[in-house]
Specification:
eight-stranded mixed beta sheet; four-stranded antiparallel beta sheet; Rossmann fold; alpha/beta; globular
């Protein structure tokens, strides 16, 4: 801003440098959408550890593929997950119990914090022990874990039914409880009645069921469409029971702004089994199509699980009935998607450590995060350092069998001496040889998504600025500095910045007609690093050579 000159002397004026640093966004924050034992519905929760997941969503759950995938995610190097619990209408309302006075008249309704059968393990008790005669009472809530017998207990002493009091029971409990929510029915004291202390006697909440679209092991036989519909959800904003606007299913992840997610896993899709055209396959493909479109819009990457009924090599590569052929017919070959074969097994602590079949998405998402942290998003999440932890697999493929899947864009998990189980493929579903796509490789696609999202977030200041050369110069300066920083980290091909990337924004990219329309065009190009997928060693004999 120009200084008004009024007196003789020296004036100081600060001149803006035009530097607006563009910071690279995250690359491996992973979204998981599934049915879980407990937790808020259609509310994305930022989870930073397995213990965090257990506190919020209950940990491993037989009906939840994603609960096992999240365990694998953290075991293999994952750091940040966004978890969305979905529900079906039959899961409403939550388990509850209504406290009464001695008449009996309903006084206070106690609801489990979230829907599901877990609420039946919550118990509530009222007493007046240690309190003077009057309108005060004690409320105790506890949860008994049926597997470990661990007890979580909350005690609220000296609360009242008086809504004007700072100890009003509904406000006190609803502010702090991780187990229940209260609703006052009428303004009377719940039993035991005033002046009659009683021993602590707990009553369990009743009602509340888990989803009826699957059996106890998570198989949605006969309910495939309802199962997939709950996972997909809706992009339409609706008000929940607390009048909070929400989207549902996978679209709930769009409500995490200003945060972003980079990877999406839908492990439950592995249970939507069946050949092309059957109920399971149809529901799965419709869900995955919606997920791919959502990922494209959010500049995210989908790790697709192979259905559990595809366990043999022929079931993957058969030209008419194989999974690869189904990908073609369902138009699921998307550059923002990768898949891995075979599925994995792990010891299930909920079933006496018997082997449980699980998809590879959670494990691979963890490896993506581990590789990004150690080497960068431009390094393929594959090779001898991309070892799988905590899982095994029964189908061991040979080199020739691997060679039958790799040209189809299906990544293989292999087992090698010394190195153990490793990810041995780095192709997107557009990476089939016949597709000849520029987005053949996972690191190339994910690097592009990283650059796109970083520039999208980092250039918002440009909007509404005067559209002329001073602005263009600032854009070139800031975007060029960001790209040069990536070049110095080894993200691109080329020995010099000129060979590695370009940033162009001038009167050639933005014409006068563009200016009239309020448009500024920025061209950013980069020379991607591509993985050394095939290593050829040539050996020949040297005969008659003279030793030096």
């Amino acid at each position: 801003m120009p200084i008004t000159l009024t007196y003789p002397g020296v004036y100081i004026e600060e001149i803006p440098s035009g530097v607006r640093t563009i910071t690279g966004v995250s690359t491996s924050d992973t979204g998981f959408v599934d049915f879980f034992e407990r937790g808020p519905v259609n509310t994305p929760m930022r989870i930073t550890s397995l213990a965090d997941f257990q506190r919020t969503f209950g940990g491993l759950f037989l009906q939840s593929e994603a609960s096992y995938a999240i365990q694998q995610f953290y075991l293999n190097g994952g750091q940040i997950a966004w978890v969305v619990r979905v529900a079906t209408p039959n899961m409403m309302p939550p388990a509850s119990h209504t406290l009464q006075d001695s008449t009996p008249v309903n006084s206070l309704k106690v609801n489990a914090l979230s829907v599901g059968a877990w609420g039946k393990h919550v118990e509530v008790a009222v007493d007046r022990l240690g309190l003077p005669t009057g309108t005060l009472f004690n409320l105790t809530v506890k949860e008994v874990n049926p597997l470990t017998s661990q007890v979580t207990q909350e005690a609220y002493r000296g609360v009242t039914m008086d809504a004007t009091s700072p100890r009003y029971v509904v406000d006190v409990v609803n502010r702090g409880s991780t187990l229940v929510r209260l609703t006052k029915v009428v303004n009377i004291l719940p039993a035991p009645p005033a002046g009659s202390p009683a021993d602590l006697a707990f009553t369990a909440l009743t009602g509340g069921v888990d989803t009826d679209v699957m059996d106890n092991l998570g198989n949605p036989v006969g309910h495939e469409a309802a199962f997939a519909t709950a996972l997909q959800g809706s992009d339409t904003v609706t008000l929940d029971a607390d009048n909070i606007p929400r989207k549902s299913g996978i679209f709930a992840l769009s409500m995490i702004a200003p945060y972003i997610f980079n990877i999406l896993c839908l492990p439950a899709t592995a249970r939507l089994v069946g050949a092309a055209g059957t109920a399971g396959a149809t529901a799965r493909n419709l869900l995955l199509t919606a997920a791919q479109a959502f990922c494209l819009d959010k500049r995210a990457f989908l790790i697709m699980d192979v259905p559990f009924d595809r366990t043999l090599l022929d079931q993957m590569q058969n030209p008419s009935t194989g999974f690869a052929a189904e990908l073609d017919s369902a138009t699921l070959r998307h550059p923002n998607t990768a898949t891995y074969f075979p599925n994995l097994t792990l010891a299930d602590p909920l079933n006496q450590n018997k082997p449980r079949l699980v998809g590879a998405s959670g494990t691979m998402a963890g490896i993506y995060a581990r590789t990004d942290a150690a080497r960068g998003v431009w390094k393929a999440p594959a090779g001898t350092d991309a070892d799988l932890r905590g899982v095994s697999f029964d189908l061991k493929l040979s080199d020739l069998e691997n060679g039958g899947l790799n040209p189809l864009g299906i990544n293989v998990i292999r087992s090698f001496p010394v190195f153990g189980s490793v990810s041995w493929g780095a192709r997107t579903l557009k990476g089939a040889d016949q597709a000849a796509s520029e987005w053949k490789y996972i690191p190339v696609r994910r690097t592009a998504l990283f650059i796109e999202e970083s520039l999208y977030q980092g250039l918002k200041w440009v909007v509404f600025e005067p559209n002329d050369e001073p602005l263009w110069a600032q854009i070139r300066l800031n975007a060029g500095a960001f790209m040069n920083n990536l070049f110095r980290q080894g993200a691109f091909q080329g020995k010099t910045p000129r060979e590695a990337y370009l940033v162009k924004c001038d009167k050639e990219t933005t014409t006068q007609n563009d200016i009239n329309l309020g448009i500024v065009n920025i061209v950013v190009g980069f020379a991607p690093l591509k993985p050394a997928e095939f290593v050829i060693v040539k050996i020949q004999q040297l005969a008659g050579q003279i030793a030096v």
